[in-house]
Write a structure and sequence with these properties.
492 residues; two-stranded antiparallel sheet; six-stranded mixed beta sheet; alpha+beta
């Protein structure tokens, strides 16, 4: 009697590794057949790991995610079938010997079924939901939101093994930035760096990634959206050097792209820059766009692009509540506050009554609302000091949040992004964006703020483009003698 196989043990063994329960029940050949799919799966996973496949490459491909979901569903039924088969074999042996089943066996089998549902069902549900969110968020709307500029895109630096004449990505048209009537100005070319990564994205053709980061002042108690935080992030792909260009919200007479410039005196917007978004939304007879949201983003992106003199590769925008929730989701943010800040009439992002904010100098771990408050407060000084604090917070985020390491939190971040994030990048660009972001040294980022006083010293709005385009021409500063935008004494 003691030599008879236990149905519970047989089921458990095949649950752990299909086929082993059958061998335990005395059916070795049958067990080998059941084990073959599992062996193939394990060998396949080992091959994938050995080949160095990046998790973000899978996330960036809807076909890859769909294939994994189908594989998971198939393995769920295979898993259950192998478990039930081993259980039945052991049960049959006991019936042949007229030995009663242990009363606990059905409960063990039921527990294994529930465990299989959890092991396969939870990833399946999260995968389906995450896949749908990724498709919705990263829909590739750059052509809708980024208008054709008035200038030709220059080839600044090329990835390895490409040249301006042989690479299809090297043409200004492929970079998405050359109008048909653009002047035929020769584009400067700099030899590629041997260490420059090969980036499989059209925006890498000019050697730079230029992303417009927008903080939208849209929250309860506020009518519409005001683009109060506008920062152009520029990254030199070959070297990994980066710069943050802040555009003050109170800039006036900013240049507009060719598609709408003819409707305004001298082709310039006469009101404040942060009023352009809503102005474009309610003037569809002037500003193109398939809906009211796209019109606003297209107008702002076009104005920043004209001022910067470089093609904007994409837009990444988040509203106030979204930023606060993101910091909380990521576990908080360490910020080294250089100067004391006190605001006695700060308006919280939830639209409630004004409160008092106090920030003492030193290293602080902020939760979402405090980090947002530090980045937004301005009554005690000015918009220009606020721009500096915003750059400090952005660099603290880059220093502490590795985009590669965040891959395992995609489902949670996708839920958050679906509610609060707007982006024009396509899903298949996620790996390339992460690759560039991982190369950026947050301690060496150049910070530039374009405000009315600084523009007066620079020579006017039309001088912004030269500052942006030439920011990487000079050798990087010596970190031992040049202070960074933000202190680095905070962990990690």
């Amino acid at each position: 009697m003691s030599s008879l196989p236990s149905p519970s043990v047989a089921a458990l063994l095949s649950f752990i590794f299909p086929g082993t329960g059958q061998v335990y029940a005395g059916e070795a050949r049958r067990g080998v057949l059941w084990a073959i799919p599992m062996v193939v799966l394990v060998l396949g996973l080992l091959y994938v790991l050995a080949s160095g496949v990046d998790a973000l490459e899978i996330v960036g491909s809807s076909q890859a995610v769909a294939a994994l979901l189908v594989l998971n569903l198939a393995f769920f039924f295979y898993h259950l079938a192998a478990t039930f088969d081993a259980y039945s074999l052991a049960q049959r042996e006991r019936r042949l010997e007229r030995i009663n089943m242990p009363t606990s066996a059905p409960f063990v089998l039921a527990a294994l079924v529930v465990l299989a549902l959890l092991l396969h069902g939870v990833p399946q549900v999260l995968g389906v939901m995450g896949n749908e969110q990724l498709e919705r968020i990263f829909s590739g709307r750059a052509t809708d939101v980024v208008p054709t500029p008035s200038f030709a895109a220059a080839i600044i630096r090329l990835p390895p093994a490409t040249t301006p004449s042989s690479s299809p990505l090297a043409s200004p048209t492929a970079a998405g930035a050359t109008p048909s009537n653009a002047p035929a100005t020769p584009a400067p070319t700099i030899a590629p760096s041997p260490s420059a990564p090969a980036i499989a994205a059209a925006w890498a053709a000019n050697g730079r990634l230029d992303v417009l980061l927008v903080g939208g002042d849209a929250a309860p108690g506020r009518a519409g959206l005001r683009t109060d935080s506008m920062i152009l992030l520029s990254v030199d792909i070959a070297s990994g050097r980066a710069a943050l260009f802040g555009f003050a919200r109170n800039l006036v007479n900013v240049p507009l792209p060719p598609e709408v410039a003819g409707h305004y005196p001298n082709g310039r917007f006469p009101m404040l820059l942060n009023a352009l978004f809503r102005h474009a939304q309610f003037h569809p007879e002037i500003f193109p766009g398939r809906d009211i949201e796209i019109r606003g983003w297209r107008a702002v992106t076009g104005a920043i692009q004209e001022m910067a003199g470089v093609p904007v590769d994409g837009v990444l925008a988040v509203d106030l509540n979204g930023f606060s929730t993101l910091i909380d989701e990521l576990g908080g943010l360490w910020v080294d506050v250089p100067l004391a800040v006190s605001d006695y009439r700060y308006h919280p992002e939830d639209g409630s009554a004004p409160i008092t904010l106090n920030f003492k100098p030193g290293c602080h771990e902020f939760r979402g609302s405090r980090a947002l408050g530090y980045a937004r407060t301005r009554h005690q000084d000015s918009d220009y000091h606020r721009m500096k604090r915003q750059q400090t917070v952005l660099l603290a985020m880059r220093r502490q949040y590795d985009p590669i390491e965040l891959a395992n939190r995609v489902p949670q971040l996708m839920d958050l992004a679906g509610e609060h994030l707007f982006t024009t990048f396509a899903r298949d660009e996620i790996p390339a964006l992460a690759q560039v972001a991982a190369r950026v040294d947050a301690d060496g980022v150049v910070g530039v703020r374009f405000t009315p006083p600084s523009l007066a010293r620079l020579g006017g709005i039309d001088k912004i483009s030269g500052r942006v385009k030439n920011v990487f021409d000079q050798p990087p500063p010596d970190p031992a003698t040049t202070p960074s935008i933000t202190p680095t004494s905070c962990p990690p």
